[in-house]
Amino acid sequence: MTLSLAKLSPVLGVDDETELRIVATGPFASPLPFPRILCSAGRVEDLVREGPTKFSARFILPSSRFPHAAIVVADFSHDSLILRGSLAVRLRAAAVPAFLTDPGASVTVRVGTRSSEPVIAPADGTVRVPVVVPPGTAFALARSVNRHGKASQQFLDLKIPPAQRALVVAPEKLAAAVRPRLPCWPWIPTGACRRIHDRLASSGPKPQPLGSLVPGEARFLVRVPASLQDPTLHLIASMPEQARGDRRGGRGADFGAHRPGSAAAGGTRPDRIPIHSLRVFLSAQDAFGNPTDAGEASVLVDGQPVSPHSTEDGRAMILLLPLAVLDRRGAITVEAS
Q1: Do residues 10 and 89 touch, judged by C-beta distance below 8 A?
Q2: CA atoms within 13 A on the CB side of 317
Q3: pTM, to two decimals
Q4: Strand order in the sheet with 334-336
């Protein structure tokens, strides 16, 4: 099963839609029926057949304007046939971060591996630089060179809100007391769906994790309660590094005589060290135990001096970016005095 887009990585705020193509190959009877398509973000419209096993549609981008991923699943499964495919769409977003620098300074902003075109700061020093931010990026690096040739740089928190990062594929109806095997499709910031040890919580009995039949999915045996006292079965998927983070509330799959919604959920904020960056907050007390300013502290990161800067709420913070360079112990040493 192959799903592809005419635009591999569309930009929210610039692109509105793109073409989705679905091609299935294998030893199964054709022509295939139209698939059921589920999206964690955005929607699919105008699905048409282009051949016995080929389909195309319009993928309408979501109205959100922050970078995240959309998981698209095409499900042909019926009776004994299990045929599904997925696509992780990297939805980039156009942004214009603003910050203060010296008037007349030449400013560039680097997001990931790409830098913006130079922008000259106006007389008040408030400069706005248009950039395109890919999903999985939380910070940008701004570099400015003033009229005297002095260079400085600062990290910009892009304040990316939480987004759904998992999609549970549930049937349109579930009968009471059945035990369906439901797939979950997670997304990680590397830009693709892949198999991980997901967790699935249920408002009914605890789901049992199963193996994977399709690359990129995680399957679960779900036990539907026999009682129809509550006609909605709520399923919430999360990833291990998000266990204590912000879990987006999921839509439920109804069972019995009630019509369902799609079962989907996700999370965003990891409780382990992120791959891309880590914020370290400093605090200090005087000899009497009273809180005092930690912004003047001398900070060394693996022996290299780093200058702390203040957050909007007045706390002193240093940003470790990137975290790819670790010593043999797999640790970073931070010293403050």
Answers
A1: yes
A2: 17
A3: 0.68
A4: 304-306, 299-301, 334-336
Per-residue pLDDT of 303-333, as tens digits, reads 888 888 877 777 888 887 655 455 555 678 8
For the chain, the helix, strand and coil percentages under 3-state DSSP, each to the nearest 5: 0, 45, 55
Integer Cα distance of 247 and 237 in angstroms: 9
What tokens does 219 get? 């399957």
> How far apart are the C-alpha atoms of 209 and 71, rounded to whole Å?
21
Closest CA to 87 of 159, 157, 26, 35: 35
User: Which residue in 165, 211, 170 sits closest to 188, CA to CA?
Assistant: 165
Q: What is the CA radius of gyration of the chain?
A: 24
Please, what's the b/e burial string for 102-114 (b: 16 or more CB within 10 A of its CB; e: otherwise)? beebbbbbbbeee
Nearby residues of 325 by Cβ (< 8 Å), 6 or more positions away: none
How does pLDDT run across 131-166, given as a tens digit for each residue? 999 998 888 999 999 999 999 988 888 888 888 888
Cα angle 174, 267, 211; round to 5: 55
CATH numbers and ranges of domains, the chain: 1-91 (2.60.40.10), 98-157 (2.60.40), 162-271 (2.60.40), 278-336 (no CATH)
d(CA 90, CA 7): 10
CB 152 within 8 A of CB 101: yes
Q: What is the pLDDT of residues 269-290, one digit of tens each?
A: 333 444 456 788 888 877 667 7
